[in-house]
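so my prof wants the structure for this chain in the tokens format not the other one, which i didnt know existed until like an hour ago. anyway here's the sequence
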Amino acid sequence: MQPLSESQQEFILHWGEMSSRWGINRSVAQIHALLYLSEEPMNAEQIAERLSLARSNVSTSLRELQAWGVVRAAHRIGDRRDYFEAVADAWEMFLTIFEQRKRREIDPTLGMLRQCLDGHGASHHGDDFALDRMQQLLELLETLIAGYEQMKRLSPATQRKVLRMGDRLGKIVGDVRAKGGRR
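here's what i got, hopefully its the right format
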């Protein structure tokens, strides 16, 4: 097995560092980064050796990555070991991660906000300010998720085009800020 290049090492270390800031275990992220950069699927022993990780840590991390949908098992004829590969398309990887974050973090928050607002709607006893803030947050999240759901129905190529439009989209809908002014 060929040693990792300096740029590969830097990417893997950085991916682990950034992911730990997002609440993802560093070794999980480093394994993901290694597989993302790898031309060929790797088995758990190869991953453990390449990253100097315990085999048990690699197995646990691979299960988590598979649960997230960013790594899948691959098989080789005549070899009983599982090999693993990352989702190769960066756009597909991003959307998969975003969907998981939405399901794990945003959806429960939406549920909690709705429950708080429904449960306190009639008898809020001086809680107007807090309820107003929760309502604003709920509306923001619902708007973002509605936009996401609409974007999800578009092809990946169209999604990229829409996101690349930037200021042009604001000009199309007449947003003054898109023309450099204040709104």
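also thought this was worth mentioning. The CA atoms of residues 17 and 144 lie 27 Å apart.
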